[in-house]
Q: What sequence folds into this?
């Protein structure tokens, strides 16, 4: 059984260059699709986390506005108080408080780890007590970092039912 070298036999036992290029292209497109959907999932998870955090802040301030003792109202108007001193003080009409909705773990880009900060402050919010014809409204405003300003600015409001 003497087999001579057959060119058809050699061509059928391996992949051609075209097949390798096509498979590499298909695999690279699949990887691009997976990474873009991963980014979308991360953005949606952050938006859900911020939504939940903003609603907790609004609920806490609405409860503070509704049930705080009368002597606490008007204390935060002094310019000498710090942010930590006014956390448990209700807002006055037109007053604004600022804070951060998101505190990701601090990553030192140089990798030295010499900083003492464990977390960073990200995604600032602004909380304002407004007065309209129906009463008082707490308005919380923040911006999603991955959307342009026109679409990324979110406003959450809750009406305050002051006890009489």
A:
């Amino acid at each position: 059984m003497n087999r001579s070298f057959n060119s058809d036999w050699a061509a059928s036992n391996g992949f051609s260059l075209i097949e390798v290029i096509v498979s590499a292209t298909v695999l690279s497109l699949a990887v691009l699709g997976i990474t873009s959907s991963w980014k979308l999932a991360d953005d949606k998870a952050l938006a859900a986390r911020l939504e939940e955090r903003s609603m907790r802040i609004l609920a806490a301030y609405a409860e503070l506005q509704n049930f705080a003792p009368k002597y606490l109202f008007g204390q935060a108007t002094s310019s000498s108080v710090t942010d930590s001193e006014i956390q448990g003080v209700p807002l006055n009409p037109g007053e604004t408080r600022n804070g951060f909705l998101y505190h990701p773990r601090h990553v030192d880009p140089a990798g030295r780890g010499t900083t003492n900060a464990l977390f960073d402050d990200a995604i600032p919010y602004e909380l304002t007590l407004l007065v309209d014809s129906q009463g008082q409204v707490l308005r919380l405003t923040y911006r999603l970092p991955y959307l342009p300003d026109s679409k990324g600015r979110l406003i959450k409001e809750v009406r305050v039912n002051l006890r009489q």
